[in-house]
Amino acid sequence: MASTISILFFLASFLLAPLPLQSADPDPLQDFCVGLINATESVNGFPCKPASAVTANDFSSDVIAYEGNTNNPFGSNVTGANAMAFPGLNTLGVSMNRIDLAPGGLNPPHSHPRATELDIVIEGTVMIGFVTTGNVFYSKVLRKGELFVVPRGLVHFERNIGQGKALIFAAFNGQMPGTVSIAPTLFGAKPPIPDAVLSKAFQVGTGVVDEIKSKFSS
Ligand SMILES: *[C@@H]1O[C@H](CO)[C@@H](O)[C@H](O)[C@H]1NC(C)=O
Ligand SMILES: *[C@@H]1O[C@H](CO)[C@@H](O)[C@H](O)[C@H]1NC(C)=O
């Protein structure tokens, strides 16, 4: 019996191998589904606002029209126009971020578990890089109008290496890309990840772990 099952799995893996992977948001089942972001029910996405209540304003947003305040330790500010901030995007499989960077500013290493990111530099000179699952680091210095793509899920960063401000717009093939910020995820989780775990993982003493935790605890 067990061997019959493993033979079936073996055959199934060959049959399924040539199928394209489903790697984007699910296809919509209607023209639009403007998200009701405070609905008490939740689905995979947001439930739809009644079509009779939808207006042109639901398909427009100014959330990324304004510069973010970069007066913080990283010198960066990310503003998201995802389905939560711009409910008209619900079920449509796209979204955008605005990334403002002060001179020397860094959007620290992070990943987007649910979307590939396509960056366009609008202003300034930036270094963008990502690391593969095989620990290969790919990076480029980009100027106005140039593009850089970050494959879904990979850890990446954006850094302003120019003299003035930098501005990047990032497009995503997902309505809610999600962000895993490496340092806050590990050192600012609530409740905290035990020091013993982080001390062993990073091969440093717990004093170093506590120092980093103190910067990400709020
Ligand atoms: C839904 O939440 C937003 C803030 O996220 C709030 O401004 C709005 O008033 C809420 N709408 C309803 C119907 O509760
Ligand atoms: C980003 O900018 C907005 C708008 O100025 C501001 O409210 C917010 O606190 C800033 N975030 C950070 C992390 O500095």
TrEMBL record:
Annotated ranges, domain Cupin type-1: 66-210
Chain sites annotated for binding Mn(2+): 110, 112, 117, 156
Covalent S-S links between cysteines: 33-48
InterPro entries: Cupin_1, Germin, Germin_Mn-BS, RmlC-like_jellyroll, RmlC_Cupin_sf
A GO cellular-component term linked to this record: plasmodesma
Signal peptide coordinates: 1-24
UniProt binding sites for oxalate: 97, 107, 112, 117
Major localisation: secreted
Protein name, as recorded: Germin-like protein
Single GO molecular function: manganese ion binding
Family to which the UniProt record says this protein belongs: Belongs to the germin family.
GO biological process, one term: regulation of root development
Organism from which the protein derives: Nepenthes gracilis
UniProt entry keywords in alphabetical sequence: Apoplast, Disulfide bond, Manganese, Metal-binding, Secreted, Signal
Compartments where found: Secreted, Extracellular space, Apoplast
